[in-house]
Amino acid sequence: MLFVNVTLILLFTIALVTGGLLEFVYAPDGYVVYNGSYEPLRSVPMDPAYEAELRIRFDTTGGALVPDLHQLSSLLFMAALLLRMILAPTLSQRFLWFAPLATTVLAMAAGFLVPYPAIGEMPVYGPYSVHLLLVLAVPVLMAFAWWRSRTSTVPAAEASGG
Question: Model pTM?
Fold first, then answer.
């Protein structure tokens, strides 16, 4: 169980750090004309966030590593949370670990649903804000589930002092 807990912390940290790095290139305002190395999209007006994604993937050495690592660590984090929930000894403890798992699924869905605004439209910050809030709620729910599962599994002999 300790291995799963450490894996959860490691995967969440990787997803948080890579998400923070990607945050610096996310720019949902206005539009730009792409002039990068990807020939089929050259001179096409597009959203700055999409242009930044293309620039990272095609013009930066090893640029696909950070977005792919962010996505992979998020998916593995969700799988490790599911494993942690399955390995919980009692049904009530499994229910405690369902909350962080469901919140992670919702955060990932909100991350995938962040729309790129059409040229000339105002950006939509709603799904992105929901994604960030849910991501920040996950460690709080994990800490609560871990604390609750630790305090609810005291054997009767230890509780009575014998």
Answer: 0.72
